[in-house]
Amino acid sequence: MGALSITGIKPGSTSLKLTAGKITKTVPITVLSRNLLAYGPASGNGLTVTVAQDGSLDFSSGTESVPLNKGVRWKFDVPEGIVGVPLIISYTGDVPGNLIISIYANANSLGGVYQGKNNTVVTIPKGTTRVELRILRGGVTAGSVSGNLKIQLELGNTAHEWMKPDVTSLEGGGYELANLYPRVTGLPKTLGTDPGVMVTEPSPGTYRFKGSTTQKVDSWDSLTCSVHVDAGTYTLDASDWPYDSRSWLIGIQSNLTPDDGSGQTIAFEPKGYGPKTLKAGTLQCNIFVNTTGEVDKTLTPRLYKID
Predict the structure, then answer these.
(1) 117 within a domain of the structure (yes/no)
(2) Any residues with CB less than 8 A from the CB of 277 and at least 6 apart, and which?
(3) Over the stretch 119-132, which tens digit does the pLDDT of each residue have?
(4) Which of 16, 108, 192, 296 is deepest in the core (most CB within 10 A)?
(5) Would you tell me how many other CB atoms lie within 10 Å of the CB of residue 189?
(6) pLDDT per residue as tens digits for the range 197-211
(7) Any domain includes 36
(8) Domain of life, per the record (predicted)?
(9) Adjacent-strand bridge partners of 286
């Protein structure tokens, strides 16, 4: 008996009539998209996503500014056949605003793509039945977003021409990454002299610096805390830098001590808050203050794992 191989060219349903002698059999055939994603309209954090006529995604924030590390997400079920095997996520298109596209399972990033990084191979852990597609605003500043993207998740480790997913009506919603920056303890505390700068925590995770000095405060390790991080890509950010993200007057400097014993390195500092790829290890975070004269500033540090 011979074998019959059928290759689907585009998604859809049809039928195949097979005849052998006096016997005729009609077999229904459904061709599924190789794009395994499921998405649809979504809005959140100032970002609106709609499905274009061809099944791609249109992004717009109008005149609103989309906050850093916030955006939208979709949750969808995954078939057992794509769990535990190589998959590749890719995109085509251009959206000003440094969007980060990631696949998550059990609250952990499996990998993602963004401007300058495409075609990422991921594996959904065995036992997983549900994953998330997250699209967040990256970069170093909040801002508006406008444009179109064609995003694809498919089997294998080679990206192919984009294909519309089978599901483009799944409603999504807003989302923001968890802030991993540890809390500073031992407050209130006075830094410097004459009379000094008082550091308080007016709300959880937000620090206020108020006072004055006649000389530089010169405090580099008085506001220290630490957190263990898994290997991945991180950004260190604050929506309210007292001066700006390049300033050495008030800011953050972080050192990483890797678990593999390879030696301590500087992870983040002014002009270099990420994104950065870190090894698994202990991240020591130091808020430094080196001002002179009157000061009344606030700072809310944010550490995000983006990939």
Answers:
(1) yes
(2) 232, 233
(3) 999 999 999 999 99
(4) 192
(5) 15
(6) 999 999 999 999 999
(7) no
(8) Bacteria
(9) 224, 253
